[in-house]
Specification:
The complex is a heterodimer of chains A (about 240) and B (about 300). By secondary structure, chain A is an alpha/beta fold. Chain A has helices at about 40-50, 70-80, 95-100, 120-125, 125-130, 140-155, 170-185, 200-205, 230-235, and strands at about 5-15, 15-25, 30-35, 55-60, 65, 80-85, 160, 190-195, 205-210, 215-220. By secondary structure, chain B is mainly α. Chain B has one domain (about 5-300). Chain B is about 75% helix and about 0% strand. Chain B has helices at about 5-35, 40-60, 65-85, 95-120, 150-170, 175-185, 185-190, 195-220, 225-240, 245-265, 270-285, 300, and strands at about 135, 145-150. The chains are: A alpha/beta (about 240), B mainly alpha (about 300). The complex binds adenosine-5'-triphosphate and magnesium ion. The site of adenosine-5'-triphosphate has 11 residues of chain A, from helix 1.
Chain lengths: ~240, ~300
């Protein structure tokens, strides 16, 4: 059974429809990337999974249960960790407080201790050094690490990442790539990644979907598929 | 008694009125800052606090009776605020105009209820004996100045409440979640924060503090069905001057408004004082349209 399944999901902003009958699945522990040009509806789709964007048709299932009408905070508590485009760092909370805010998702989960796991500081040693700084003063790369770490504090079963490499220098991209690979290997967390940077997407995911004007136009395994073969679907 | 003594006494009264204003405005600031909701029935929380104090003194006696009043006023108003949030405010989320109208309706209902129960004329609260004295200065440049204990008590009470609320927001776990919701509601939700519960808590807290204001106000003037209405206008002024969503700004603005109107009232009539107060507020908004204290930040300025 897939961990997350979208069945014919449609979504609209007022009168303008953005997603048309999208089918998409992520198996437990699987990493999937969602590709597409600017404005095709990638962020809208991720927001729909989080419950931040209303769905006008279709269903969203998590672990087989229908969550289409579930409030966002309940989805987080089920185990969906979200790193939005733009990172969503609380600017006036300290780094430590930003991390602790993720503990809210552990409420009502039996057998889960409400603390920040040690491996988070291992993955992102920087965060301990800047722990008492305000989130808003961090650089883009530091904020991205914090956002990823904060999503991990919620002990997710799937991480939803919206363009984590956007506007970030190569060395930090490498660091995030390594972190994601370790999270996948050691914690068996599934990933749904929206990404413009194909090499990065190919290095951390095993399956892809291509979205074009709100419709899935291609999908398949990343292994053995030359990323350049779908570049024509992504570039203008 | 010299002129300066009269002036000082009046200023002192201004500060004590300012501290009640601060308590009354705090809930408005909190719920507007967090939920972008303007609660027209907020003044009635003050009224309810006043009447509850009056009732409490019917049953509780002794030197600590007034402390019981404060407790009952806080709890009662907080409970009423929670009910209002659950039954009206949360259903009108994102519809500020409807919220304004609906809570105005609730305000009228509460006023009418008070009129039916307690009558249109105000009820008086007898302040406990230990508050019925005053500091008198007999020597030095303060000679002739009288500082009634009641006023001192009100100022201390407000300072303590302001301090506690600030500590709660700044240090507690709930306070942190409150700040997170304030800064980015969607992100807080996405991290598992039950934002509806945070809203409810803040609304109840603000109402409870207004109940305390009503209790304090009852010490210096009768409780009437319209006490909230007449006081809330000033609380709104304080909120606007202070900058919506800022506690420190609210405190400064309350002091400014309270002292200004007290100072003006020495020389002019009450209505003239009100006109001058409004003129001052208008002038201030010209120079600082977003209030005395504003926060500059990339993410907040976009909101
Ligand atoms: N709040 C909104 N109101 C109206 N239209 C919107 C809103 N947000 C997005 N859209 C529109 O919906 C479409 C899809 O937007 P979305 O943000 O999902 O695209 P995207 O694939 O994430 O793009 P990008 O790669 O630039 O992040 C776009 O045409 C966009 O203009
Ligand atoms: Mg996007």
């Amino acid at each position: 059974m897939p961990l997350v399944a979208l069945e014919k999901v449609s979504s609209a902003y007022g009168m303008s429809q953005v997603l048309y009958d999208v089918d998409l699945t992520v198996e437990p522990g699987e990493a999937v990337t969602l590709l597409g040009r600017n404005g095709v509806g990638k962020t809208t789709l991720l927001r729909a999974i989080m419950g931040l964007q209303p769905v006008s048709g279709g269903r969203i299932l998590f672990d087989g249960a229908d969550i289409t009408r579930l409030p966002t905070s309940r989805r987080a508590r089920l185990g969906i960790g979200y790193v939005p485009q733009g990172r969503g760092i609380f600017p006036h909370l300290t780094v430590e407080e930003n991390l602790r805010s993720g503990l809210s998702a552990l409420e009502g989960r039996p057998g889960v201790s409400a603390r920040i796991p040690d491996y988070i500081h291992e993955l992102f040693p920087l965060l301990n050094r800047v722990r008492s700084r305000k989130g808003g003063v961090l650089s883009g790369g530091e904020q991205q690490q914090l956002a990823l770490a904060r999503a991990l504090v919620t002990q997710p079963r799937i991480l939803i990442l919206d363009e984590p490499t956007e506007g970030i220098q190569p060395s930090i991209v490498q660091l995030i790539q390594n972190a994601l690979q370790r999270i996948r290997a050691e914690l068996n967390v599934a990933v749904l990644l929206v990404e413009q940077y194909l090499e990065f997407a190919w290095s951390v995911t095993s399956r892809f979907y291509v979205l074009r004007r709100g419709v899935v136009v291609d999908s398949g395994l990343t292994a053995g598929r030359d990323p350049h073969s779908i570049a024509h679907l992504l570039n203008v | 008694m010299g002129d300066s003594a009269v002036l000082l006494g009046q200023l002192f009264n201004g500060v004590s009125v300012a501290s009640i204003l601060l308590l009354a405005a705090m809930g408005l600031v909190l719920s507007f800052g967090l939920m972008h909701v303007i609660n027209m029935a907020h003044g009635e929380m003050l009224m309810v606090g006043g009447y509850l104090s009056f009732l409490t003194l019917k049953f509780v006696h002794g030197p600590a009776a007034f402390l019981a009043c404060l407790l009952v006023a806080f709890a009662g108003a907080a409970l009423l605020g929670a009910l209002l949030e659950l039954s009206v405010v949360r259903w009108l989320y994102g519809r500020p105009l409807d919220t304004l109208l609906a809570t105005w309706g609730v305000s009228l209902i509460l006023q009418q209820a008070a009129r039916s129960i307690f009558g249109p004329i105000g009820v008086e609260l007898t302040a406990p004996a230990w508050l019925n004295r005053s500091f008198s200065f007999t020597q030095g440049w303060l000679a002739g100045v009288q500082l009634p204990y009641i006023r001192v008590f009100i100022i201390v009470l407000s300072a303590a409440v302001l301090g506690s609320v600030a500590l709660f927001i700044g240090r507690s776990q709930w306070g942190m979640l409150l700040r997170a919701v304030h800064q980015d509601r969607e992100m807080a939700e996405s991290l598992g924060v039950n934002t509806r519960l945070v809203d409810l808590l803040v609304f109840a807290l603000g109402s409870g503090v207004a109940g305390l204001a009503g209790s304090a106000l009852a010490l210096i003037s009768p409780v009437t069905p319209t006490v909230g209405q007449s006081f809330i206008v000033y609380a709104f002024l304080v909120t606007i001057v202070g900058g919506l969503g800022s506690l420190l700004g609210t405190a400064l603005a309350a002091l400014l408004v309270g002292i200004f109107s007290a100072a003006v009232q020495i020389n002019f009539s009450l209505s003239t004082a009100d006109v001058l107060l409004l003129l001052m507020v208008v002038a201030l908004i010209q120079f600082r349209p977003r209030g005395l204290i504003t926060r500059n930040s990339r993410s907040l300025s976009e909101a």
